[in-house]
């Protein structure tokens, strides 16, 4: 399945109004399921090598409007990985301790070590999304110079630099925007209200945020255009159809892992000879 259409590296502009959130590709639901499960098997093989080699880390970021299916995507696409090599982090409203630090402080300690994969459910992008929509910096305890008009513009620069810094340290950053329509969000909210097992996922504040839909769309468009680079592209995933979204996410992850091309470490001639000696000792055991 082609993913080029959904990839933004800074060369073509992302126009959020032009983007069809209901795109479903050409595959049937059954075919999408089997594509995801084939990709999960490949991801597992690559992950084993990634861990053994310990040279590259992968940081996967999910951003989306409420109820776009971030949890489901994480749950379905990554459930085949070895949990020892993966960390999943959810970034919620910052605590007072986090707010007392620079905005990357809470992030940096969760960047994966080389050999591992970290999945961020929301991320530092919130600091150019919700922070932009509500001008949160204006009410935070910051010096005046950090509250000026261009604060968000500066943050795009920090983020580009941070991601380049990670890239230069062996960490590949992969960014997904699970993009849904306003109608699809309504449908999902209604399901959260009607289905008792989903009530806990709904909060009244989700409705007040929905009123800022247009502002968020603009903030996403800007953030994506400002931070899409060749090394750390954005993938805008049409997500009204959840299985299509999951299949695209799995395609992207497989592509990224393939490009990293991890290998089991090669051992020296001496180490190989030692292994053979150990084999003989084991075989001689009574
Ligand atoms: P769902 O899509 O299922 O609703 P969620 O990711 O929205 O899941 P919630 O606990 O509902 O999870 O919301 C987390 C909230 O934290 C979001 O509204 C998000 O905007 C907010 N948040 C995350 N990071 C920041 C930040 N740096 N500053 C302010 N708010 C933030
Ligand atoms: Mg929410």
Estimated radius of gyration: 21 Å
**What ligands are attached or bound here?**
adenosine-5'-triphosphate, magnesium ion
Query: What share of residues are in beta strands?
Result: 5-15%
What distance lies between the first and last C-alpha atoms, to the nearest angstrom? Answer: 55 Å
What's the story with the biggest beta sheet?
Answer: 6 strands, mixed
Sequence of strands across the biggest β-sheet: 1-6-5-2-4-3
Helix content: 40-55%
Count of helices? Answer: 11
Mean pLDDT: 96
Q: What overall form do the CA principal axes indicate?
A: globular
Structural class, from helix and strand content? alpha/beta
Strand tally is 6
| Helix/strand order | EHEHEHHEHHEHHHEHH
Low-confidence stretches: none
Task: Give the SSE map.
Layout: E1 7-8, H1 29-53, E2 57-64, H2 70-77, E3 86-90, H3 96-99, H4 105-108, E4 117-121, H5 130-133, H6 151-168, E5 171-179, H7 182-194, H8 204-210, H9 213-227, E6 234-238, H10 242-260, H11 269-284
Parallel strand pairs: 2-4, 2-5, 3-4, 5-6
Antiparallel strand pairs: 1-6
Helix pairs in contact: 1-10, 2-10
The chain binds adenosine-5'-triphosphate and magnesium ion.
Concise summary:
It contains 11 helices and 6 strands.
Explain what you see:
With 286 residues, the protein is of the alpha/beta class. The chain is 47% helix and 12% strand. The protein contains 11 helices and 6 strands. The protein has helices spanning 29-53, 70-77, 96-99, 105-108, 130-133, 151-168, 182-194, 204-210, 213-227, 242-260, 269-284; strands at 7-8, 57-64, 86-90, 117-121, 171-179, 234-238. Helix 1 (29-53) runs parallel beside helix 10 (242-260) and helix 2 (70-77) crosses helix 10. It is globular. The mean pLDDT is 96. The structure holds adenosine-5'-triphosphate (ATP) and magnesium ion. The site of adenosine-5'-triphosphate has 16 residues, from helix 2 and helix 5.
């Amino acid at each position: 399945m082609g993913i080029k259409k959904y990839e933004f590296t800074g060369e073509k502009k992302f126009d959020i109004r032009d983007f069809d959130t209901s795109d479903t590709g050409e595959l049937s639901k059954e075919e999408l399921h089997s594509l995801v499960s084939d990709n999960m098997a490949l991801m597992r093989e690559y992950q084993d090598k990634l861990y053994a080699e310990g040279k590259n880390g992968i940081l996967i970021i999910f951003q989306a409007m409420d109820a776009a299916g971030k949890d489901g995507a994480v749950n379905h696409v990554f459930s085949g990985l070895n949990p020892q090599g993966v960390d999943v982090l959810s970034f919620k409203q910052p605590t007072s301790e986090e707010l007392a630090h620079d905005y990357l402080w809470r992030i940096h300690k969760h960047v994966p070590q080389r050999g591992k994969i970290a999945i961020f459910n929301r991320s530092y992008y919130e600091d150019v999304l919700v922070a932009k929509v509500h001008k949160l910096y204006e009410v935070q305890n910051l010096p005046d110079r950090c509250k000026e008009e261009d604060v968000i513009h500066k943050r795009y620069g920090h983020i580009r630099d941070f991601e380049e810094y990670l890239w230069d340290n062996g960490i590949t950053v992969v960014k997904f925007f699970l993009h849904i329509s306003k109608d699809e969000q309504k449908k999902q909210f209604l399901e959260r209200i009607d289905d008792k097992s989903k009530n806990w996922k709904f909060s009244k504040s989700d409705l007040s945020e929905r009123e800022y839909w247009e502002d968020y769309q603009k903030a996403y468009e800007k953030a994506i255009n400002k931070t899409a680079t060749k090394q750390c592209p954005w993938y805008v995933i049409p997500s009204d159809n959840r299985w299509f979204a999951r299949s695209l996410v799995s395609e992207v992850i497989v592509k990224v892992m393939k490009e990293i091309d991890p290998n089991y470490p090669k051992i020296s001639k001496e180490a190989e000879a030692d292994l053979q000696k150990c084999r003989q000792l084991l075989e001689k055991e009574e």
